[in-house]
Amino acid sequence: MHPIIIFSKMDFSQSNLFGYIEDLQELTIIERPVRRSLKTPEEIERLTVDEELSDIERAVYLLSSGQDIQGTSVVANLPVLMRQNPADTLRRVLPKIREVLHIAGVEMQLTAAVSFLTVLQEESVSIHTYSHSFLHIILQNLEHRDAGVSNAWLETLLAVIEALPKETIRHEILNPLVSKAQLSQTLQSRLVSCKIMGKLANKFEAHIIKREILPLVKSLCQDVEYEVRTCMCRQLEHIAQGIGTELTKTVVLPELIELARDEGSSVRLAAFETLVNLLDMFDADDRSQTVLPLVKSFCEKSFKADESILVSLSFHLGKLCNGLYGIFTPEQHLRFLEFYKKLSTLGLQQENGHNDNQLQLQTLEQEKKYISVRKNCAYNFPAMIVFVDPKNFHLELYSIFFCLCHDPEVPVRYTMAISFYEVAKLLNSGVYAIHKELVTLLQDESLEVLDALVGHLPEILELMINGGENSGSESKLLSIPDLIPALTTAEQRAATSLKWRTHEKLLQKYACLPHIISSDQIYYRFLHRMLTIILTNNVLPVQKAAARTLCVYLRYNRKQEQRHEVIQKLIEQLGQGKSYWNRLRFLDTCEFIMELFSKSFFCKYFFLPVLELTHDPVANVRMKLCCLLPKVKSTLKIPTDKHLLQQLELCIRKLLCQEKDKDVLTIVKRTVLELDRMEISVDAEQLEKEKQQNEGRSANVNDKMFEKKRRDSKTSSVLTKSITLSVPGSSSGTSAGKEDKKSKLVRSQSFSTQALHPKYSNIDKCPNKSSATGYTSSVSGMGKSCMLSFSDDSFRSHSTGNSGNSAFPSSSSSRNLFNSADQKNNGNKESQSRKMSIKNRKSNS
């Protein structure tokens, strides 16, 4: 029984994994076409080119006898050939390309158009040479039967026209354009002529345009094909800018009025959009007598007979209303406002009807159109506030604002979220009226809407607090009652989604909350949440954003108990956490603390916890710590933080001696050199106190010396010598103690002075303490040690005078002290050896 059961299970699993046997057989058949698609030896031989040929010869050979794909590669490589050898390329390669393009396919044509444009942009040849060699090829391929190819060559030509001189344009482009724009030419030729004339309008003077271009423009505006009339109508804007205001009113405006009544809907749409774009060129009479009646007819027909213009009308309505604002009567003003309100709710009223399939398809198409209309209304909402005056917002537009913010479609709410900041700025002191919609958009179910709103969230909240009706420091929270729940809900929704960039952006913007709500609310509702995100989230940018925002919250928290609690949690849960990932985030947090807080704050709470990570078992943590050490050292002040500097030096010495990881050791050595080049800031007040103390001591010594001189005046020469020996002795006694302390800091000057010396490898590792001490003593004996922070040039500049030198000796004085001490020690040793030799002689005798 068991084998049968096992066999049935295997058969069942195979059917799940591989399907039926017929499917497997079909899979085996697929291999045959793959094998057939491989190149045969004959085909490979035809594709092979002699390697000894030069680039120019290879290009000519491939264009002459190669396959299409090889010729296309040569055309794509044309800019490179023009940079390397322009003369031979123009003489040998370009004529071949010209021949090949007559029979070339679409891919080679598109590649050639791009290559020709690249040669122009790179300025590989002069514009005269380019027009002589390339322009004719471009003009020949403009009327290609493929519309995509023709448009590609047209884009290249329009870019070339910008660089060509006027005479070349007149002879090579404008004169042939007269024949190309005739009705007898092809549709593609007339469409190309329309676009070229729009480009030429900015290259010639107004009288040349009036004499040579405007007659062609009028004929193309009356072309029998609606595509040509549409294309020419969209170029009237460029032509109007070229001929000026007077000719625009006498020539262009009549053509626009006629095209606005055209039978083709696309022509009417192009005329309407061109009319709106040229609104600034018309005076008040033209606007009131010509443009306004035309716009009114467009608005009336858009709902009845011409819905094709509805989307464009909704998009340009804001610009149109503000452009015609000065000529509106109160009745017309109200009519356009009602028209905007109608567009803003278009499609939201459900109408009863049949449920046939055809009607459903029409309903779907109409629904897409209506969504676009409402989206355009949301885009124009700031312009409509200007149109009605912000003072009348609550009476005239608030209901529309409410509907758009609660629209069932995401694109509409997304557009409102983007324009929310502009609306808030326009409302100014009345911004409190839209606080409910802010809360609604923060709680929106779509993260796209939330992401659009968060971009200007700090500015919006600041306007809400400072410009609201309940503005005041003691009533921050009361101005927006539901703000805190909305913010927490938005963060939780972003955290549970897969869009971590939105979550990161949200956390970064939440750093503004200390200026918006109270410190207690931040502490209980947001601060601990940031710490939880650092500990539990798996996305590094999100963790860093939360860490920085937490540091901002801590910066503005004035309650010492809460501060100490957060600091303790950061040290225990991050700095001393079980996961190395948390310890890495602790170092990131410390970096933010150094950026946001004072140096003394960091030294007081975080300096030693950071140094403890030098003993971390994970190499990545130690490596990140070493990279952070220069910033850590920059927080120290001398002489206030002497003990912290000694701890830092001790940790670095331990890393140098005990580190076994090669990567970490490399970074340690690099960090040592960087630390040696750093200058430590000096605490001037503390330094002045020490100077005064040292001056008092030196004054007492000088008084005693003067009394001694007066008593022993007869033996002044001898006493002078003894005094000069005794004074350095006393100063050397105090400085020797300091030098003894400083010797603990000596460790890295050999790296800076002997960085490239072969002996550099001798200090990579210190197997025991004796070797480390031997290294220290040897460096100090050589007199080349860099007493970090005590022998800096910056420090020496502050400690001027004898007292300063005695308190903090410079490198030269320390060398003299060491040399004098060495000489005394050597003298003592020599005298002792002489005494021992004399005693031995006496005993022998």
Task: Write structural notes for this entry.
- This protein has 845 residues and is mostly helical.
- It is 75% helix and 0% strand.
- It is built from 48 helices and two strands.
- The protein has a two-stranded parallel sheet.
- The longest helix is centred in the last third of the chain and has 34 residues, at 811-844.
- The chain is extended, with a radius of gyration of 43 Å.
Largest sheet: 2 strands, parallel
Which whole number gives the mean pLDDT?
Answer: 79
| Separate helix tally | 48
Radius of gyration: 43 Å
- Please state the structural category: mainly alpha
β-strand number = 2
Roughly what fraction of the amino acids lie in strands? Answer: under 5%
The proportion of residues forming helix, as a percent range, comes to over 70%
* 3D shape: extended
Main location: cytoplasm
InterPro entries: ARM-like (IPR011989), ARM-type_fold (IPR016024), HEAT_type_2 (IPR021133), PPP4R4 (IPR039918)
Subunit structure: Serine/threonine-protein phosphatase 4 (PP4) occurs in different assemblies of the catalytic and one or more regulatory subunits. Component of the PP4 complex PPP4C-PPP4R4.
Protein name: Serine/threonine-protein phosphatase 4 regulatory subunit 4
